[in-house]
């Protein structure tokens, strides 16, 4: 005999599943609409990580209140950046101006040299150059938008650093009580991984920037300080950053003779070997072991969603994403209890 309540139970289950599916679709659409705000929030988390990395040791050693430690750490970071800019700005501004002036001339000279050994139809046509110029204009506009968002990122970072526990507890409470311990542990692990990655990346940026500046000076390239600063800043962008940083130096070196060009190639390749075989293993030892392919896919995917700002933040997003996936999906799937250690 059939249970008369069975059809109603099936109908209620169907309705519940439909409502859940609609809610998930609506949530996905909402997240898509506010994706830029989410990216700014993540950038703020990186800024907060840097501030807290200095504020927490300061608080432990002095016993000062958290807010005072955060304010002092933020002031110290601003003072350090301002002092460094004040020290290098006179030389850097001159060298950057020279670099901007010399690069177009170097490109023209390089094009003339290539034209002597290549057929005319192998050189870029005027239409191709116009398309490249239009693309550069588009990228410049996107870069300006990313720079304008920097103020919001810094403000978000300061707010997160002032009361990180409050925001972490609020995030944890969005999940069912049975999952809150695991989510809390996942967020803690992601924060620790992000902190280790950021500190390691700062070391890598300083090392590569200093190495390029000293190497370019030793080779005799124009504007070594500007080239070093460009290389250090672009080191933050995975995969394509180091390649893009080498382009100005290689263009200049190509107009200065074959030996200079070869020394410049050796300089950049040697520093990348130092980064790949020494710096990156030290960084990965403290965070999730993110394969290079994941960094590359993250760069492409996040860059397609968010533009240049997404490209810049793709590496830390990959690190945090892998840690959260491991803590919230892989370990539960395999019956591992991450809330009591790294099992």
What does this structure look like?
The chain is mostly helical and 343 residues long. The protein has one domain (35-340). It has helices at 5-33, 35-62, 66-117, 126-148, 150-162, 164-172, 177-219, 224-234, 240-254, 258-284, 292-306, 308-333. The chain is globular, with a radius of gyration of 25 Å. The N and C termini lie far apart (51 Å). Mean pLDDT is 78; it is low at 122-126.
Main sheet, how many strands, which sense, barrel?
Answer: none
**Alpha-beta content class:** mainly alpha
Tell me the helix content. over 70%
Strand content: under 5%
InterPro entries: AI-2E-like
Transmembrane segments: 14-32, 38-55, 67-89, 139-162, 250-271, 291-324
Keywords: Membrane, Transmembrane, Transmembrane helix
Family: Belongs to the autoinducer-2 exporter (AI-2E) (TC 2.A.86) family.
């Amino acid at each position: 005999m059939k249970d008369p309540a069975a059809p109603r139970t099936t109908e209620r289950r169907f309705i519940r599943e439909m409502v859940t599916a609609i809610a998930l679709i609506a949530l996905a659409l909402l997240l898509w609409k506010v994706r830029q705000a989410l990216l700014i929030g993540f950038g703020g988390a990186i800024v907060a990580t840097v501030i807290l990395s200095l504020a927490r040791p300061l608080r432990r050693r002095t016993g000062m209140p958290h807010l005072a430690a955060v304010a002092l750490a933020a002031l110290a970071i601003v003072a350090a950046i301002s002092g460094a800019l004040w020290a290098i700005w006179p030389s850097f501004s001159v060298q950057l101006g020279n670099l901007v002036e010399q690069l177009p001339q170097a490109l023209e000279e390089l094009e003339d040299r290539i034209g002597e050994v290549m057929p005319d139809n192998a050189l870029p046509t005027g239409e191709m150059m116009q398309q490249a110029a239009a693309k550069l204009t588009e990228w410049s506009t996107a870069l300006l938008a990313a720079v304008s968002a920097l103020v919001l990122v810094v403000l978000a970072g300061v707010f997160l650093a002032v009361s990180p526990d409050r925001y972490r507890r609020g995030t944890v409470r969005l999940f069912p009580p049975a999952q809150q311990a695991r989510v809390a542990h996942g967020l803690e692990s992601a924060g620790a991984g992000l902190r280790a990655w950021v500190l390691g990346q700062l070391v890598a940026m300083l090392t590569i920037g200093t190495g390029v500046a000293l190497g370019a000076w030793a080779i005799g390239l124009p504007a070594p300080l500007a080239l070093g600063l460009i290389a250090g800043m672009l080191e933050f962008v995975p995969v394509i950053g180091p390649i893009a940083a080498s382009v100005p130096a290689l263009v200049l070196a190509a107009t200065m003779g074959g030996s200079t060009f070869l020394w410049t190639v050796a300089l950049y390749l040697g520093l990348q070997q130092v980064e790949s075989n020494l710096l990156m293993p030290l960084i990965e030892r403290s965070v999730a072991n993110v394969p290079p392919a994941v960094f590359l896919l993250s760069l492409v995917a996040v860059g397609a969603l968010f533009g240049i700002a997404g490209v810049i933040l793709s590496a830390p997003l990959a690190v945090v994403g892998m840690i959260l996936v491991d803590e919230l999906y892989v370990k539960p799937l395999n019956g591992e209890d991450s809330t009591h250690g790294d099992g």
